[in-house]
Amino acid sequence: MPESDRRPRLTPAVADVRRAVREATADLPEGSLVLVALSGGPDSLALAAATAFEAPRAGHRAGAVIVDHGLQPDSAEIAERAAEQARMLGLDPVRVVRVQVSGEGSPEAAARQARYAALLQVRKELGAAAVLLGHTLDDQAETVLIGLARGSGAESLWGMHPRIGFLRRPLLQVRRATTHAACVDAGLEAWRDPHNDDDRFLRVRVRHRVLPMLDEVLGGGVAQALTRTADTLREDAEALAHFAQEQIGDLVEHAEGGLSLDAGALAANPPALRQRIIRLAVQSEFHTALSRQQTLEVSRLVTDWHGQGPIHLPGIRVTREGRRLVFVAA
């Protein structure tokens, strides 16, 4: 009998994870295939168990994808153990994919890039409607705090989005302690990734040193406060993106080799919206992402125009010609 058909004790932790999955998949058409990205750790294992329970009750099918990064000597055995747990839970299909992690950049970033590419490839092959990721509220808080420390702008403080394309993160409002408890309550033995205790990784130091210290100094609730900040900033950013998209059609004139923007109309907008319009226009036309400093340089041709010469950006030249900013490929 599949594990999903058994009746384990319904504890608050199990109920919380199931509820999160139910809400995250409620909009999927009946008969959809939902895949869980399963590492075998407590977060993704609790997610897999909840999905195995909830999916058939919503008329969905549920499967799992296990990505073997090959970064540990016994990674193949760990992946196969996770696959066997998925099958015992009643998930089908279950795919194990081995990836090659590039040596370029940080190991964490390289592994993440390889993992997401594999997940999206399997989703495409199987025709799945969604891939569920096991990131929790605590993961979100760590992401926001790291972004804040690096000072890389408001976008870095949005944290992880609940949905990006086919990727969904049902557990962003669920604590890590809850997923661990859900595994214990359901009698599931989770794998403990030694990398999660390795202080060489920034995220591990934030998890085990920085956040506990902040909780102690500030009286607790830091993780929840950081995730609320991320939610608020993301909502504000989505509103600005909507307003920018509404205006850009009226402000842009396309020309051979580039485009131009109405400087007077740009000047009438508040700085946050003006700069977003500039970035969006450049991204759409030249497929180039401007940094904040580059955007401010362009913006000064609108707000501080006194006859200065062109601005040279990577692959783009920007000039002020009368009431228009002209962007052309360099």
From TrEMBL:
<dbReference type="GO" id="GO:0005524">
    <property type="term" value="F:ATP binding"/>
</dbReference>
<keyword id="KW-0547">Nucleotide-binding</keyword>
<dbReference type="InterPro" id="IPR012094">
    <property type="entry name" value="tRNA_Ile_lys_synt"/>
</dbReference>
<keyword id="KW-0963">Cytoplasm</keyword>
<dbReference type="Pfam" id="PF09179">
    <property type="entry name" value="TilS"/>
</dbReference>
<dbReference type="GO" id="GO:0006400">
    <property type="term" value="P:tRNA modification"/>
</dbReference>
<comment type="similarity">
    <text>Belongs to the tRNA(Ile)-lysidine synthase family.</text>
</comment>
<dbReference type="GO" id="GO:0005737">
    <property type="term" value="C:cytoplasm"/>
</dbReference>
<dbReference type="InterPro" id="IPR015262">
    <property type="entry name" value="tRNA_Ile_lys_synt_subst-bd"/>
</dbReference>
<keyword id="KW-0819">tRNA processing</keyword>
<dbReference type="InterPro" id="IPR011063">
    <property type="entry name" value="TilS/TtcA_N"/>
</dbReference>
<protein>
    <recommendedName>
        <fullName>tRNA(Ile)-lysidine synthase</fullName>
        <ecNumber>6.3.4.19</ecNumber>
    </recommendedName>
</protein>
<keyword id="KW-0436">Ligase</keyword>
<feature type="binding site">
    <location>
        <begin position="39"/>
        <end position="44"/>
    </location>
    <ligand>
        <name>ATP</name>
    </ligand>
</feature>
<keyword id="KW-0067">ATP-binding</keyword>
<dbReference type="GO" id="GO:0032267">
    <property type="term" value="F:tRNA(Ile)-lysidine synthase activity"/>
</dbReference>
<feature type="domain" description="tRNA(Ile)-lysidine/2-thiocytidine synthase N-terminal">
    <location>
        <begin position="34"/>
        <end position="209"/>
    </location>
</feature>
<feature type="domain" description="tRNA(Ile)-lysidine synthase substrate-binding">
    <location>
        <begin position="261"/>
        <end position="325"/>
    </location>
</feature>
<dbReference type="InterPro" id="IPR014729">
    <property type="entry name" value="Rossmann-like_a/b/a_fold"/>
</dbReference>
<comment type="function">
    <text>Ligates lysine onto the cytidine present at position 34 of the AUA codon-specific tRNA(Ile) that contains the anticodon CAU, in an ATP-dependent manner. Cytidine is converted to lysidine, thus changing the amino acid specificity of the tRNA from methionine to isoleucine.</text>
</comment>
<dbReference type="InterPro" id="IPR012795">
    <property type="entry name" value="tRNA_Ile_lys_synt_N"/>
</dbReference>
<dbReference type="Pfam" id="PF01171">
    <property type="entry name" value="ATP_bind_3"/>
</dbReference>
